[in-house]
Amino acid sequence: MKRAHSILIFGFITLLFTSCTKEVKIDIPGYAEQLVIDGNIETGMPPIVLISRSRDIYAPTNLDAYLSGFISGAIVTVSNGTKTVQLTEICTDNLPPGTEAMAAAVFGLPVDQLALLHICAYTSFDTDIWGEVGKTYTLNVNFEGKTYTSSTSILQPTAMDTLYWKPDANFTDRGYSWATLSDPANQYDAYRWESKPISDPVFYKPFQPFTDDQFFNGKTFDFAYENSSNCNGTYQPEEYRCYYKLGDTVVIKVSKLPRDVFEYMEKKYTQIYSAGNPFATPINLPTNIVGGALGIWAGYSPWYDTLICIP
To answer: What mean pLDDT do residues 247-260 have?
Structure first.
């Protein structure tokens, strides 16, 4: 009798919990198209601005859809405080003679691949508006009766103390390259890391190219970095991926960037690497564009050096 009574109570509790359900309706906002501005300027280089339209998450994601999103016909100006220049629209499949190498560096693609694409950007060949350390650059974009503005600065670069190469424990002729950084004390600093073989026109970024000094402000420390140009492993044995080879000559590029640019880039790369992960935290990218557009206007101040990979 006691057992029957327990079964009756258990059944009642089970019925109680399974019957207490509530339908939850989530009101997901509809898609609203926005302008996307992706611009940058760095020391010794012209301003480069790409303008496109945002796309619905459920829209096609093929190459044609990507290329069709870029915008022509905008009026884009950049000012350094003393001179204002209207940028010229140029397209990768119709580059002015002599600009091919610069375009390859800007887009991160070989010249022969650029010629097969139709990507239009706004830039200027007036060297008076090219990037200079210590200057602030104001961007103004006018499109379809709306105006979007932003500003960014080119900061004083920070040089690495030393660059060196040493073989990995498993090899005598393959290894990572290393650097020693003395981060300036009592100020905020953010960095972008890039490298390339000396014969390559394009710089490559590692897995996470952006960092700030939140955990090493004012400190001196050593760190290793991979050979990002061969991490895809498509043209060499798997065991050699991401290594520099003994005797390689490498160009190192370390750029300083403002805080708002770092915050955008850090979240952008986090979003890229977590794409498709259903358990990843949703990320809304910040923007320094005023007027209702998405994107970033970024200033970079690079420092360069050359490393020969010998012990």
So the answer is: 97
